[in-house]
Amino acid sequence: MRGLLYLPGVATLRLDRDLCSGCGACLTVCPHAVFEMESGKALDSARDACMECGACALNCPAGAISVSPGVGCARAIIHGWLTGGEPSCDCGGPSDCC
Ligand code: SF4
Ligand code: SF4
Description:
The protein has one domain: Alpha-Beta Plaits. Strand 2 and strand 3 form a beta hairpin. It is 20% helix and 10% strand. The longest helix is centred in the last third of the chain and has 10 residues, at 74-83. It has a two-stranded antiparallel sheet with strand order 1-4. The chain is built from three helices and four strands, in the order βαββαβα. The chain is an alpha+beta fold. It binds iron/sulfur cluster (2 copies). Residues 15, 20-26, 42, 60-62, 64-65 line the site of one iron/sulfur cluster (SF4).
């Protein structure tokens, strides 16, 4: 599903390549093909395509990925604007999100 982009530069996804062991799990589980492998380590080359589902962080055995599930989607941002609070889509949790 690469090609779907959200607002640029707002995704909370963070990758610490120093911790990455190159197992490839994040490439396997990411539904938006955010990662690619470069020099034996993951690279988040399409960060703006991240929908913050949290699957990569959950499946990374090295703890190299962090992401705040759901806070970067457009619905969450607009909800935050309207309520004056932090971005949250108020959907009830990651399993229902996006
Ligand atoms: S949070 Fe989801 S969409 Fe974003 S990089 Fe991780 S697996 Fe991909
Ligand atoms: S899941 Fe973690 S350790 Fe495995 S390739 Fe991705 S970032 Fe690296």
